[in-house]
Write a structure and sequence with these properties.
single chain; alpha+beta; Peroxidase, domain 1; Glutaredoxin; four-stranded mixed sheet; 8 helices; 4 strands; about 60% helix
């Protein structure tokens, strides 16, 4: 998901407030619930993006939907977003908050894509590689299986990517062969 810079500003202000009141963990759980609810409900996303539905109706729907499931700070924050006309950013703010929480806790996500499911030994190798690049951080693995890679593994940590897949090597070979310097004599 591409997250808008304004969503980071709102998420940062929520993080600052949660830190000030020592409820970062609770607000993180609330924002994870909000993100999952928004991701799982097309109707909710349509409602949040609709210019036809009035702000007070949107605020009422959100407060009823999350009543008793989120804390007072998160509930108030969602109300502020709606009153400011930024309710369509709610899923993005929730995702941005999750990223800020991970930074706050020193958690790094290593996205691993492989042709087959990883063994425990491979998981440990990926963790050790990520730990060497990011010392002192907690490493969480996000695994995906993509048979189109043929073999090998692709690891993405932040904006760094390590690609040791067979499909990448074949692509490199294809590119090399396309640079054929041979010019036949006539």
């Amino acid at each position: 998901m591409n997250i808008a810079p304004v969503a980071y500003r709102y998420a940062r202000s929520l993080m600052d407030l949660a830190s000030e009141r020592s409820v970062v963990e609770a607000v993180n759980e609330d924002m994870a619930l909000v993100a999952n609810t928004c991701a799982g409900s097309q109707d909710l996303r349509v409602l949040l993006n609709s210019p036809v539905v009035k702000a007070d109706k949107k605020e009422k729907v959100l407060s009823q939907l999350f009543a008793g499931r989120v804390g007072a700070i998160t509930n108030s924050f969602m109300g502020i977003l709606v009153r400011k006309g930024r309710e369509s950013l709610l899923p993005h703010v929730a995702a941005a908050f999750t990223e800020l929480y991970r930074q706050h806790k020193g958690i790094v996500i290593a996205e691993v894509t492989s042709a087959v499911a990883l063994s425990e030994e491979m998981r440990q190798k990926v963790r050790s590689l990520a730990s060497a690049q990011h010392p002192g951080k907690t490493i969480e693995l996000s695994e995906k299986v993509d048979p189109a890679l043929i073999g090998g593994v692709k690891i993405r940590i932040g904006d760094e990517q390590y690609d040791g897949t067979v499909s990448r090597r074949l692509s490199d070979l294809r590119r090399e062969f396309s640079k054929n310097p041979y010019i036949p004599e006539i």
